[in-house]
């Protein structure tokens, strides 16, 4: 399933990179002039491995060359010898490369790009069911968190969205219905407040945690869609269905940066519901049975949990039989998972493969 998701994304990336490749030729003063910068556009480079930059020229050699990665000068040379550039501290993702060739007063520019991916093959985990609890089959789970002995859950769909507080056993203690024009998505608890995303409406809903009273409606303009949320005590993390995870200010809920998520094969997209667990981000990968464990500093996928076969019971709406919902009991070290309209919520233990 993950291969299909990633393949679709890579087709888009490939098309984008091929467009950039068309700009890889230098400015020509004659039909026979050839000037190219390597590696080829779209090449995958493992993080930490040296990046080899080389030129192919058929015209007069330049007086000097400067090399830039994402507009940062990384090397200067008096000749066209191959340059070895360290990638250890570079962020994962598409890195744009430019070479400026100086000949007298003339400047020729060449460009290419590479995709910096994780050098780590992700660890693989299965699961063991520790406990099974009831889960409301009307709950189209979009966000799930555990706090002080209770679950807080965001439920989606137009005309049926809500914010809930439930017992571990599945009893609904508190429920706030959401206006029909909103499709609720991820949520997270921040002190005495709860914030909840909307799918395409580009607003964030802020509530009082105790009363569930709506306090504010704020703009959400940094992405086309809202998917998942998590909070580490200092920073809010936000997914939008791509391979980006935005870092939001805990007071304003506005972006202050982002990471791009990659494994050793390429970008990992469809990142959905999030949970902060012992310094890592756990993310459901939408429509798959996988949870990605992500380094929040680098975006590297360190491991996958494969939950195939978890839901043994019949889901009433088969079109909604999708794994979504991760909650962590930090004190009890308990990991909970469920899905959209699933009749069960599970406490599981990760099992290394």
Brief summary of the model shown:
This protein has 353 residues and is mainly beta. It is built from one helix and 28 strands.
Strand composition percent = over 45%
Q: Low-confidence spans: pLDDT under 50, at least 5 residues?
A: 1-32
Shape: elongated
| Overall residue-averaged pLDDT value | 89
Listing every helix as H and every strand as E from the N terminus to the C terminus, the arrangement reads HEEEEEEEEEEEEEEEEEEEEEEEEEEEE
The tally of strands reads: 28
CA gyration radius, whole angstroms: 24 Å
Percent range of helical residues:
under 10%
Strands side by side in the biggest sheet: 22-23-24-25-9-28-27-26
What separation lies between the terminal Cα atoms?
Answer: 19 Å
Overall SS class: mainly beta
SS summary, helix count: 1
Biggest sheet character: 8 strands, mixed
What does this structure look like?
The chain has an 8-stranded mixed sheet with strand order 22-23-24-25-9-28-27-26, with no helix packed on it. Strands 2-8-7-4-5 form a 5-stranded mixed sheet, with helices on one face. A 4-stranded antiparallel sheet has the order 10-11-12-13, with no helix packed on it. The protein is mainly beta and 353 residues long. A hairpin with a 4-residue loop joins strand 26 and strand 27. Residues 1-32 have low confidence and may be disordered. It is elongated. The chain has 1 helix and 28 strands. The longest helix has 20 residues, at 2-21. Helices cover 6% and strands 51% of the residues.
């Amino acid at each position: 399933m993950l291969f299909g998701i990633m393949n679709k994304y890579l087709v888009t990336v490939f098309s984008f990179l091929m467009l950039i490749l068309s700009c890889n030729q230098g400015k020509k003063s004659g039909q026979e002039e050839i000037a190219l910068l390597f590696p080829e556009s779209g090449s995958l480079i493992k993080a930490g491995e040296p990046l080899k930059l080389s030129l192919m020229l058929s015209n007069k050699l330049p007086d000097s060359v400067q090399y830039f990665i994402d507009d940062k000068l990384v090397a200067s040379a008096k000749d066209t010898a191959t340059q070895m550039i360290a990638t250890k501290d570079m962020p994962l993702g598409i890195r744009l490369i430019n070479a400026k060739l100086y000949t007298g007063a003339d400047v020729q520019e060449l460009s290419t790009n590479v995709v910096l991916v994780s050098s780590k093959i992700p660890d693989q985990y299965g699961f063991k069911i520790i406990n099974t609890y009831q889960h409301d089959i009307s709950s189209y789970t979009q966000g799930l968190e555990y706090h002080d002995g209770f679950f807080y859950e965001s439920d989606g769909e137009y005309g049926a969205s809500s914010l809930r507080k439930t017992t571990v056993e599945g009893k609904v203690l508190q429920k706030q219905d959401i206006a029909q024009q909103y499709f609720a998505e991820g949520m997270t608890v921040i002190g005495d407040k709860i914030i909840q995303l909307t799918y395409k409406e580009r607003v964030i809903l802020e509530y009082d945690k105790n009363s569930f009273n709506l306090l504010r409606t704020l703009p959400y303009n940094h992405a086309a869609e809202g998917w998942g949320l998590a909070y580490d005590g200092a920073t809010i993390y936000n997914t939008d269905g791509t391979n980006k995870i935005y870092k939001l200010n805990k007071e304003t809920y506005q972006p202050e940066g982002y990471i791009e998520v990659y494994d050793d094969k390429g970008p990992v997209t469809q990142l959905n519901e999030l949970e902060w667990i012992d310094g890592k981000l756990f993310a459901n990968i939408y429509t798959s049975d996988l949870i990605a464990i992500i380094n929040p500093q680098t975006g590297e996928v360190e491991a996958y949990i494969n939950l195939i076969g978890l839901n043994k019971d019949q889901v009433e709406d088969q079109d909604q039989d999708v794994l979504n919902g991760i909650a962590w009991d930090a004190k009890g070290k308990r990991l909970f998972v469920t899905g959209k309209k699933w009749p069960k919520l599970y406490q599981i233990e990760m099992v290394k493969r």
